[in-house]
């Protein structure tokens, strides 16, 4: 997160960097919302549906998207894994359903969930690809989550 320039007004806008920051912000928001509301019996979790072909891709140059998929496939092949596959809409919805209906609120509260489980923290020295499982520790950091909350309040001119 770049709290000094959240809207890329002073730095060059890069779509995938902006996307990554927005996903990190979603996780941090869930962490702080859960902290603020759990005493009232309200819980929050960040849910990653996986890679699903949606309309979001219409804003990305298809050659750039193909280059990303090719890079992912190279990484997967180097790890001895099969090629990248998009998830279907039902497959992508499964984690949201699991988190909202099946999982224990105490298990998922303030956590990052993917593929119908709580994601594991991935060390900084391990590369995360678009199909990797896990979350970086900074995305779950309570101090950063609180700072994001305060920045959000500042940006919307409201205190919650």
Task: Write a brief structural summary.
With about 160 residues, this protein is mainly alpha-helical.
Could you characterize what this model shows?
This protein is mostly helical and 160 residues long. It has a domain at 15-48 and 88-154. The chain is 46% helix and 5% strand. It contains 5 helices and 3 strands, in the order αβαααββα. Strands 1-2-3 form a 3-stranded mixed sheet. α1 (15-37) packs across α5 (142-156). It is globular. The two termini are 21 Å apart. The model has no long low-confidence stretch (mean pLDDT 92).
Main attributes of the structure:
single chain; 160 residues; mainly alpha
- Biggest sheet: strands side by side, in what order? 1-2-3
SSE topology string? HEHHHEEH
User: Could you tell me the number of beta strands?
Assistant: 3
What is the beta-strand fraction? 5-15%
N- to C-terminal separation? 21 Å
Please give the count of helices.
5
- Low-confidence runs: none
Nearest-integer average pLDDT: 92
* Major sheet: 3 strands, mixed
Radius of gyration, whole Å: 17 Å
């Amino acid at each position: 997160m770049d709290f000094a320039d959240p809207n890329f007004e002073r730095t060059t806008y890069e779509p995938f960097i902006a996307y990554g920051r927005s996903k990190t912000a979603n996780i941090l928001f869930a962490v702080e919302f859960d902290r603020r509301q759990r005493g009232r019996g309200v819980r929050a979790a960040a849910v990653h549906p996986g890679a699903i072909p949606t309309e979001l891709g219409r804003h990305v140059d298809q050659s750039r998207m193909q280059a990303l998929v090719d890079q992912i496939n190279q990484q997967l092949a180097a790890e001895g894994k099969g090629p990248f596959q998009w998830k279907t809409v039902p497959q992508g919805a499964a984690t949201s359903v699991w988190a909202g209906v099946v999982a224990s609120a105490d298990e998922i509260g303030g956590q990052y969930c993917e593929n119908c489980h709580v994601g594991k923290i991935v060390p900084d020295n391990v590369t995360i690809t678009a199909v990797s499982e896990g979350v970086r520790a900074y995305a779950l950091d309570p101090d950063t989550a609180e700072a994001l909350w305060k920045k959000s309040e500042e940006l919307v001119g409201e205190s919650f």
